[in-house]
Amino acid sequence: MKVETIVVGLLEENCYVLIKNNTCLIIDPGDDYAKIKEVIKDNKILGVLITHAHFDHVGALRHFISKRGVKIFKKSNISEQDYSIGDFKFKCIYTPGHSSDSISFYFEEINAMFVGDFIFKENIGRCDLPTGDLNQMKESIEKIKNYDDGIKIYNGHGEMTTLGYEKMHNPYFK
Prior knowledge:
Blueprint: E1 2-8, E2 13-20, E3 23-27, H1 33-40, E4 44-49, H2 55-58, H3 61-65, E5 71-73, E6 82-85, E7 88-94, E8 103-107, E9 112-116, E10 119-120, E11 123-124, H4 134-144, E12 152-155, E13 161-162, H5 163-169
Parallel strand pairs: 3-4, 4-5, 9-12
Antiparallel strand pairs: 1-2, 2-3, 6-7, 7-8, 8-9, 10-11, 12-13
């Protein structure tokens, strides 16, 4: 599986395109549909995964909703469980705190977790926005600590990190 990162929009949000066997999943299509489409190329879009519904993460979503056969995975229509679509398998993990609808998507095959604005390198997402909650954030951090330290953390803004690095260097994990 190949992971492509596309930085889009005014807030430089990380949109991810996962490509496998001429199919793809899109994670957080923040903005700039044309830029995202360049990376998708001729791969068939199977689904769009939304880590949370803030504008900077869903700006181009409308372009994918109208496409036949594209499943949208977001908090309002999925459960905390394992999913399979095409050749992609992932686990949905509720991680509220930054927002009440925050979800992380774990792909065991590549040991990668796509977390939106839940975790940043040496930081976490803001909890002072509408539906944010610091206590829920603390609970989500405790939940995620149980996962493997080697997991690559793909976040909504900035550079990738690992769970082990965050356990060692992120003050919110102490």
